[in-house]
Design brief:
The chain is of the alpha+beta class and about 190 residues long. The protein has helices spanning about 1-30, 60, 150-155, and strands at about 35, 50-55, 70-75, 80-90, 95-100, 100-105, 105-110, 130-135, 140, 160, 165-170, 180.
């Protein structure tokens, strides 16, 4: 009988540990960190299809959005789809794109992370050399691979409420593993 009690106690200890670890995983996953996989070419050369990243759901509870941050957000066209893009404009910013050059508040944005000039889409939200003011509670986002990115040039600014979190770490592939830092100087963030 003592052997049976010992076995039951051992099994219960294991179950308690599994339930505790599972609960902690769920809390972390739902409220703190979310793993994501990059799909598509819109953020090349910064991120490639198949890269695995960690998104912090709490960053913006402790600090404000900054130009240059990479965020994951729900698509304005289909909330079941998540996009990864870079913040270009904050609420109240005036965005003007002309001849492939991005201006934010009349200052040219130094974008060493893009490979091609910024194009515009026919029928999109942004028109050549026509200023666009980012509404309150919205951010203006663009992919780093401008010719291959569906972003605010097409569908306008996105709501801050649609942002899932800040991309802060890439954990696969291992040769580019590490912290994702904001490439813009502090003065323009």
């Amino acid at each position: 009988m003592n052997v049976m009690k010992s076995i039951i106690a051992f099994v219960m200890d294991i179950l308690e540990t599994v339930v505790f670890i599972g609960s902690m995983f769920i809390v972390v996953y739902l409220f703190i960190l979310t793993p994501n996989q990059v799909k598509g070419a819109s953020m090349e050369n910064t991120f490639h299809t198949g890269d695995y990243i960690l998104t912090s759901r709490v960053t913006y509870k402790f600090r404000r959005f900054e130009r240059g941050d990479v965020v994951v957000f729900k698509s304005p066209k289909n909330p079941d789809i998540e996009y990864i893009k870079r913040i270009i404009g904050l609420p109240g910013d005036v965005i003007n794109i002309s001849n492939g050059v991005v201006m934010v508040n009349n200052i040219q944005l130094a974008e060493n992370y893009i490979a091609a000039t910024t194009n515009l889409w026919d029928g999109g939200c942004i028109k050549d050399n026509i200023p666009y003011t980012v509404p309150q509670d919205y951010i203006f986002v663009m992919g780093d691979n401008r010719p291959r990115s569906s972003d605010s040039r097409e569908f306008c600014a996105v709501t801050i409420d649609s942002v899932i979190g800040d991309v802060f770490y890439r954990y696969f592939p291992s040769n580019v593993m590490g912290v994702i830092s904001n490439p813009l100087p502090k003065a323009v963030r």
